[in-house]
Amino acid sequence: MEALKLATVDDLLHSADEQVELIDGEIVRRPMTRPYHAQAQGNTREELGPFNRRSGPDGWWILTEVSVAYEPHECPAHDLAGWRKSRLSSLPRGLIDLPPDWVCEIVSPGYERKDTQQIPLLLQRHQVPYYWLIWPEERKLVAHQLEAGRYRVIATMDHQQRARIPPFDEIEIDLGYILAA
Question: What domain count does the chain have?
């Protein structure tokens, strides 16, 4: 019996397909982006724009579709991820191998297992402080915060609410705008 060979970040970088990511040692295609997914992603980044525009240590890098090399066999492409500029003073030219301070995944139908089970476990191992999930079709957002090495839900919101959600609780976020349908 032949041993299963896990793909590595190097294998991912040599893939001819740009729409792939490395999950649990397997190179997998990312789901096709649907209109509600794209709208929620763009609107979230825009809503968090005040943090992204700040320079200096209290600013953030908020990126979309960014690949993060966590481990030799783990390099997901997050829908949104953010780093405090105090931890990542400038963006690297290649892959980012520093875990983010915040990740937001927009759940796609048929890919729920990755976003709700596989990715949170990876982020917990790497001590990512905040993890948000957005379900655009259901028009809801669930925010998690890392406490004692595990995520706990700190907010469950729908499209009819405005809220201050860590780590961006300096501003009131308009979930109606993010989750507009």
Answer: 1
